């Protein structure tokens, strides 16, 4: 029974959009009263969901948990983590709803960034081709033409500047390729503690990771707290979130320290990738009901703040690209025209 899902993973990986649509359809069926297995059968009424539904159904029949079944169907780790917590909360419908809502936001901002950067990146690629042609053809021709004039020294200077620009663009390209292709591979190989130290050393990255980690921790903690279990049992459950490594790592640490008698608020305040405001919520002598309300409000506020940051970033990306590109175009124009101007002065 385990063979089919492995073959399925190798041959088919659903797009983010398909994953979201499947979650939305499954949540709709569950919300109107269908049990899980009949709901999965009815998702197969749409051809695009047949492979997903078959894989999940076979995995569940073989004794897999709901999160393991979705993982075998190659769903995003963010979705799998939400479903993992439904083991304890027992509310699969709400877990699917939360997973769909948060995943929808991820897709929206990712597509927005792709849409905004597509045209500037195309222009930058064309500029790189022009810069290469100028370096290999135009400037050497000018060099032989101005060799016996005083403009030759100016041309040599501009040729050096062109070389520096080329090296800069190549370096940026390698950094971009590393971030897109090699960084995910690298992060899987290093320890979680090393990964946390790397995030701490990168200011811009640290700010985003801290907000994301605090948001996920608060949301998961609130969901589990509603079941009435203790803090220790909650972090024990969250330590199993292997797809969210930092949350899992911190939860394992919290579990060990809570057993020694430390308070949750003091422990949260000592962890660098948690928002300090999160520890203050646990510093109050509030009931579980009030703490749940505070955590839900904290999650809502932090979600809105992250949305504002994302929109601000999106609005800045395109203007910055165009300003940089305009600077490069002006540089090319000066590189070509300045030696000619120097030559004219000698006539």
TrEMBL record:
Any Pfam family from its record, for instance, is T2SSF
Residue stretches making up the Type II secretion system protein GspF domain: 22-140, 217-339
Question: According to its record, how does it sit in the membrane?
Answer: Multi-pass membrane protein
Q: What is its main location?
A: membrane
Location relative to the cell: Cell membrane
Q: Which domain of life is it from?
A: Bacteria
Alphabetically list the UniProt keywords. Answer: Cell membrane, Membrane, Transmembrane, Transmembrane helix
This entry carries the following GO cellular component terms, namely: plasma membrane
Residues spanning the membrane: 119-138, 158-183, 316-341
PANTHER family reported in the protein's UniProt record: GENERAL SECRETION PATHWAY PROTEIN (PTHR30012), TYPE II SECRETION SYSTEM PROTEIN F-RELATED (PTHR30012:SF0)
Q: What is this protein called?
A: Type II secretion system F family protein
């Amino acid at each position: 029974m385990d063979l089919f899902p492995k073959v399925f993973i190798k041959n088919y990986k659903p797009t983010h959009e398909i994953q979201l649509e499947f979650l939305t359809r499954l949540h709709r069926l569950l919300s109107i009263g269908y049990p899980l297995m009949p709901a999965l059968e009815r998702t197969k009424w749409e051809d695009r969901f047949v492979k997903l539904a078959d894989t999940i159904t076979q995995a569940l029949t073989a004794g897999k948990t709901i999160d393991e079944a979705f993982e075998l169907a190659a769903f995003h780790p963010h979705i799998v983590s939400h479903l993992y917590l439904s083991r304890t909360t027992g509310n699969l419908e709400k877990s699917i709803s939360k997973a769909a809502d948060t995943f929808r936001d991820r897709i929206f901002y990712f597509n927005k960034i792709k849409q905004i950067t597509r045209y500037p990146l195309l222009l930058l690629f064309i500029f790189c081709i022009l810069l290469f042609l100028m370096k290999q053809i135009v400037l050497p021709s000018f060099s032989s033409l101005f060799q016996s004039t005083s403009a030759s020294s100016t041309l040599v200077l501009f040729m050096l500047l062109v070389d520096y620009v080329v090296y800069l663009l190549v370096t940026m390209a390698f950094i971009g390729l590393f971030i897109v292709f090699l960084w995910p591979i690298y992060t899987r190989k290093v320890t979680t503690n090393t990964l946390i130290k790397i995030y701490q050393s990168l200011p811009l990255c640290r700010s985003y990771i801290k907000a994301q980690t605090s948001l996920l921790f608060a949301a998961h903690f609130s969901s589990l707290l509603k079941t009435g279990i203790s803090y220790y049992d909650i972090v024990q459950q969250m330590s199993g979130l292997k797809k969210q490594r930092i949350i899992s790592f911190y939860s394992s640490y919290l579990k060990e320290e809570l057993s020694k008698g430390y308070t949750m608020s003091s422990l949260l305040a000592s962890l660098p990738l948690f928002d300090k405001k999160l520890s203050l919520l646990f510093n109050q002598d509030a009931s579980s009901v009030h703490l749940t309300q505070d955590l839900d409000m904290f999650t809502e506020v932090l979600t809105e703040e992250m949305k504002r940051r994302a929109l601000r970033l999106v609005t800045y990306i395109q203007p910055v690209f165009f300003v940089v590109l305009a600077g490069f175009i002006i540089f090319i124009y000066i590189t070509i025209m300045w030696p000619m101007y120097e030559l004219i002065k000698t006539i």
